[in-house]
Amino acid sequence: MSTDAGTRFGRAEALAMLARYGDRSPEQVDEHLGSLELTWLIAAAEQAYDVQLDLDDERLDAIRTVDDAVDALGAQIAAAGAPGATVGAAVATDDGPGSTDAGAAAP
Q1: Which DSSP letter does residue 106 get?
Q2: How far is CA 30 from the centre of its chain?
């Protein structure tokens, strides 16, 4: 499945990806996801949308169904906005006035 940056990750896309795992039709995909199916879906979504998803244990544990996966993965893919982006658990912080960022370029 090839997608472009404007393609939304929705239920139809998730079912199509899951159908390839187990060589079945999208109509045969069970609503409840096992851990291997979820792993497959994450890898397939990362490849199709050219993003690297970073889901922490809490987020992964909350994904039990296809709809849960669509909500969680779709939000991260939409937040990525650009091919090759990493989205998920990593959060940039501002340590306040006087803090330094060793990776920042000097003005």
Answers
A1: P
A2: 20
Percent of the chain's residues with pLDDT above 90 = 61
Q: Say which amino acid occupies 64.
A: R
CA separation for the pair 80, 75 (Å, rounded): 9
Q: What pairs with residue 65 in β-bridges?
A: 32
**Three-state secondary-structure class, residue 93:** coil
**Exposure string for 26-50, b = 16+ CB within 10 A, e = fewer:** beebeeebeeebbebbbebbbebbe
Q: Would you call 52 helix, strand, or coil by DSSP?
A: strand
Reported pTM: 0.71
The tokens 């039990």 sit on which residue? 64
The amino acid sitting at 29 is: V
